[in-house]
Amino acid sequence: MSEAEAPASLPATAVSPPAEATGDQDRPLVDRARAGDTGAFETLVRRHQGWVFTLAVRMLGDRAEAEDMAQEIFLKAYRGLKRFRGASRFSTWLHAIASHQCLNQVEARRRRPQRWAGNRPDHGENDSASVVERLADQTPRADALAERTDLARLVQAELANLTAEHRIILVLRDIQGLSYEEIAQALRLELGTVRSRLHRARMEMRARLTPYL
Amino acid sequence: MTCDETRATFSDLYDEELSGARLVTITQHLCTCPACQAEWANFRRAMQAVADLGTAEPSSGFAARVRQQLEAPTRWQRILGWLFLPLHVKVPIQAVAVLVVAFAGFLLYQSSPDLRRAVEPSRVPSPPAAREAPTPASPPAAGEPARKDADRGPSAEAPKAEESSRLFHAESAEPGGAPRVLRQAAPAPAEPGGAAAPVPAAPNSLAAPLSAPGPGAAPAPAEETQTSSLQGRPADVLYGTGLTDLADGKYERSIDNLRAFLAQYPQDARVPDARLRLGEAYVGQGRYAEALQEYEAVVQQFPSSPLVPTALYLQAQTRLAQGDRSGCQLLRDVADLYPQAPEAASARQILAARCH
To answer: What is the residue range of A50's domain?
Structure first.
């Protein structure tokens, strides 16, 4: 399979940008929005708000903050529409904006005083015990895995313990379902870098989750 | 292929990025290595758990809120909108602002005598009152220190009186003594254009008290009431206080004290000077007719006084300030009959400027 193509087998629950929004179908709306038609841009927001908000909430771990971030991403996109020349799809361009906004927010949060447990600075595998490990110390393993919501909560907590670079590439690939090429464009990375960074992120996540799976 | 090499390909294997011989080799290793099989199973379960996090939706109305944000004016747009208000909004606001500023200025002017005195000399010509240094080009500042009189000691009650008493004890007496002829100028028709034409400034420190009355200048109250309270006061006190009040722009009090002085001490040697000062105080209140009477009284009652040219000069200035061109004739009298008097030079300048 060529790298330029979308991967043939994405995880079953991976969230992709809407099919009708990933091609030229966005262009007429983009052109109208660029001319000042806020109604057209609102339609674009409806099309893409799901994955933009998902990216934000997986990166930040907080719904309210993620919603503010998503709003900021769309406002930034609207203001930057004049610079969008259509060389790539609108969704790819929007992914780049969203990714950098989220990374900037994570970095800004890291520099602020910590206010919540999940807001710890990014650290490597050998740092202090993760949230999962601390929870496991207190809760029998069977109970921790009994409820799916509990597992999701644990996975989200472990996701927050990855470095921002590993977290976003994991979200873009395994949750958003972007191809390597789309990830490379969004993060402005070489394909090889995407591949190696994704591998390290996945292996770290496996190591963190294995005791509970 | 080793276990480490196999596990290094898990990410590509999970994404089905491997093919050909490499895929076959890895598959064979996984089939024969239980440890790698378990590791691969764990890897797949972990990735599935991550994918199961799934999607999330923002709260309802998210897109509409984004649109509202887009349509709301930015901070700069609000500032620019305020700066470039339409004329039908901006002009009334500016008109009200001008009125408020003008009213505030008027209140400030009314409540500040110093400000009034500073403004008035530039609006209304002030005749000189002293005989020294009649140089129109260099009017003395309001705060010019008073020169000491050689003959009279300073009065404790009225230190400023010393400055004014120079008129009475002028060291530069008229060489010719009394004036030979004093012509009484007949009133002439008012000068077209009013009386506010500029003339050279008064050449002495008494210019300010001689200026036109302030907007708030009130007429003098009943003389009996005022003078009765001043009965029995020493001549130096009345005279000195009158001059001090005059210098301070307190014309009404100055008039009271000087009139009390004239009434109680009619034989005092300072009477001619007191009358001139009284005239100045009247001018300060805008009571020109009474001022002219005082000046004329000096000329008529004290024809040999060295203050006669000063009285004539002040009379001329007062008439000109009223638009009465008969003041020109009086200036000619000063220039012709008292050529050595300090007022003569000023009189000639005013004649050249205003009496063509």
So the answer is: 17-113
Domain annotation covers residue A155: yes
Give the best residue of A206, A209, A210 to mutate against chain B (max B CB count within 10 A).
A206
- Is pLDDT above 60 for B352? yes
pLDDT in tens, B268-282: 999 999 999 999 999
Q: What is the mean pLDDT of residues A105-123?
A: 63
CATH number, domain with residue A169: 1.10.10.10
Mean pLDDT confidence for A133-147: 48
Tokens representing B302 are: 């004290």
Torsions phi, psi of B190, nearest 5?
Answer: -60, 145
CA B175, distance to chain mean position in Å, is 45
Same domain, A21 and A83: yes
If we measure between CA atoms, which residue out of A182, A174, A21, A8 comes closest to residue A92?
A182
Q: Which of A80, A113, A146 is the last residue of a domain?
A: A113
Record: contact A41-B15, CB cut-off 8 A? no
User: How many angstroms separate the CA of residue B44 from the nearest CA in chain A?
Assistant: 8
Q: Shortest CB distance from A206 goes to which of B46, B53, B67? A: B46
Contact A53 B53 (CB under 8 A): no
Distance (Å, whole) CA A179 – CA A59: 19
Place of tokens 């009652």: B301
Sign of CA dihedral B223, B229, B232, B237: negative
The rounded distance, in Å, linking the Cα atoms of B18 and B20 is 7
Same domain, A79 and A45: yes
Q: How far is B94 from chain A (nearest CA, A)?
A: 35
Res. B136: pLDDT tops 50: no
- 3-state secondary structure string, B61-82? CHHHHHHHHHHCCCHHHHHHHH
Residue B126, judged by CB atoms within 10 A of its CB (0-12, 13-18, 19+), counts as: buried
- Does any CB of chain A come closer than 8 Å to the CB of residue B49? yes
A106 and A166 share one domain = no
CB contacts under 8 A, A 143-182 vs B, are: 148, 151-152, 155-156, 159, 170, 173-175
Q: Is A183 inside any structural domain?
A: yes
Give pLDDT, residue B188.
37
CATH value at residue A96: 1.10.1740.10
**Residues A71 and A144 occupy one common structural domain:** no
Q: How many domains does chain A have?
A: 2
Angle at the Cα of B280 from the Cα atoms of B277 and B286, rounded to 5 degrees? 150
Q: Do both A97 and A151 map to the same domain? A: no
pLDDT at A185 over 70: yes
